[in-house]
């Protein structure tokens, strides 16, 4: 049993309030699939909050596991330091660890995984062993030409992950985060050449995941304004 004396009172109260609010929410296990720049990162926080889910971004989970020095985290660290790719089994294991946490009790929204059919199969195997399954897959669909424009104009607040766009969603003060006033950065891979390469990889490797989950897929027209995209998501999730 956890030693609650080590947890700050405000954190305990926040968790109690969250559980009271979320106790009647139906369970949902969601996957967001879409090419880079399709708006998954914009919509996932609202989905998480509205449906009391935990947000599982594989990159963040890997970094957290490494920082926490969990057995799987140390294995991932060794792979990354050697220049090797982190194996699918290892990523699925880290996802399995994450969904044991209390904030994932009513389900999760998974962003950035699975990227291939093989990964989807491993994820499903892990969930089946736990007596659960993926409920819905939201496919964020945007024309490639618009995605290039979206990504090349994107700016990020490194501390929180908040994203802005110089044309579609500019910050109140150019170059500064609205909440903290801290400088925004441009990711090194947010350029036209890189995004075109990533789009080709998405169409070749990740699009087949939608066929794999074909009976669970809802198609989201993500080239619309963020509010209209949110309305579509609300309509499908209830």
UniProtKB/TrEMBL annotation:
One of its GO terms (molecular function) is ATP binding. Keywords: Kinase, Nucleotide-binding, Transferase. The keyword Transferase applies. It catalyses: AMP + ATP = 2 ADP. It holds the Pfam family ADK. Residues 154-189 form the Adenylate kinase active site lid domain. Residues 162-183 are annotated as: Disordered. It comes from the Eukaryota. InterPro entries: Adenyl_kin_sub, Adenylat/UMP-CMP_kin, Adenylat_kinase_CS, Adenylate_kinase_lid-dom, P-loop_NTPase. The keyword Kinase applies. Its EC number is 2.7.4.3. Belongs to the adenylate kinase family. HAMAP family: Adenylate_kinase_Adk. Catalyzes the reversible transfer of the terminal phosphate group between ATP and AMP. Plays an important role in cellular energy homeostasis and in adenine nucleotide metabolism. This is adenylate kinase. It comes from Chloropicon roscoffensis.
């Amino acid at each position: 049993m956890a030693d609650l004396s080590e947890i700050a009172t405000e954190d305990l109260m926040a968790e109690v309030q969250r559980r009271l609010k979320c106790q009647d929410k139906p369970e949902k296990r969601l996957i967001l699939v879409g090419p880079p720049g399709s708006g998954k990162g914009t919509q996932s926080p609202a989905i998480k909050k509205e449906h009391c889910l935990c947000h599982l971004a594989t990159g963040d989970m890997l970094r957290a596991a490494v920082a926490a020095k969990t057995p799987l985290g140390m294995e991932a660290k060794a792979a990354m330091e050697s220049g090797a790719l982190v194996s699918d089994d290892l990523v699925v294991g880290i996802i399995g660890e994450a969904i044991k946490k209390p904030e994932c009790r009513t389900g999760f929204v998974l962003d950035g995984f699975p990227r291939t059919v093989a990964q989807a199969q491993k994820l499903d195997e892990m969930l089946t062993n736990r007596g659960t399954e993926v409920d819905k897959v939201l496919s964020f669909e945007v024309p490639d030409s618009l995605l290039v424009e979206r990504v090349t104009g994107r700016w990020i607040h490194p501390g929180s992950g908040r994203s802005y766009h110089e044309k579609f969603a500019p910050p109140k003060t150019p170059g500064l985060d609205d909440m903290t006033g801290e400088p925004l950065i441009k990711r090194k891979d947010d350029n036209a050449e890189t995004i075109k390469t990533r789009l080709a990889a998405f169409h070749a490797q990740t699009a087949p995941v939608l066929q794999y989950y074909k009976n669970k897929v809802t198609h989201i027209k993500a080239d619309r304004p963020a509010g209209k995209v949110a309305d579509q998501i609300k309509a499908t999730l209830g």
